[in-house]
Design goal:
The protein has 211 residues and is mainly α. The protein has one domain (7-192). The protein is built from eight helices and no strands. It is globular, with a radius of gyration of 21 Å.
């Protein structure tokens, strides 16, 4: 049986941390592709949206493993509370606090996607836009919480991740500025011909339409 201070837990925490950052990068970039309605004949918008959802689920899975192994490893004093409440960890308070913030934001975005049918479009969209704060918090957490992201393969992952998300964010704003202000990755479908709910035709009170 693996002890609570086994190096395997620490190795798992470090490995899943980098993998989660890479998956989060892919999730953000895929979300931009879906939001900007990218797609062609071979890979359409529907397929991109499905891949985005799948990568999001895998990201949450690896994040859960990262969190569980971090709490289970008693070598580092990181309690369960500090995982969800920022700035409560006795170990590297700011770095772990940023990880907790990233976890909370990603959890809110993921939960809003699961409850999309029960949320208003404006509330769902606001939560998804706030999800952009998750990435910088996760990136700074990865660099400051440990040493793996400062050299070697870890540093290469961080640099590639930052370049990819920065490019995706720039393309998100410049490629379709009209959609950058409103539509996000998993926006609920709208009826054909109506861009927004407020664009629906209004019927004046007292008016009648004769057949």
């Amino acid at each position: 049986m693996i002890g609570l201070t086994s190096p395997y837990l620490w190795y798992t925490t470090r490995a899943t941390g980098l993998v989660t950052l890479a998956l989060l990068t892919g999730m953000v970039c895929l979300g931009v592709l879906v939001a900007n309605r990218a797609g062609g004949e071979r890979v359409g918008r529907f397929e991109l949206a499905q891949v985005h959802r799948a990568v999001s689920a895998i990201t949450v899975t690896f994040l859960a493993i990262h969190v569980v192994t971090t709490v289970a490893d008693s070598f580092v004093a990181t309690g369960p509370l500090s995982i969800v409440v920022p700035l409560t960890s006795p170990y590297r308070r700011v770095a772990v606090g940023l990880g907790a913030l990233a976890l909370d934001l990603l959890g809110a975005v993921w939960l809003s996607s699961l409850l999309q049918a029960r949320l208003s479009y404006s509330a769902w969209r606001a939560i998804h836009w706030l999800g952009w704060l998750c990435y910088p918090a996760a990136l700074i957490h990865a660099v400051s919480a440990g040493t793996d992201a400062r050299h070697g393969v870890g540093l290469a992952v961080v640099v590639a991740s930052l370049a990819s998300v920065a490019g995706a964010a720039l393309w998100r704003v410049t490629a379709r500025p009209d959609r950058a202000a409103g539509r996000t990755a998993l926006s609920p479908p709208r009826r054909r011909g109506l861009r927004r709910p407020e664009d629906a035709p209004r019927v004046e009170s007292g008016s009648r339409t004769r057949g």
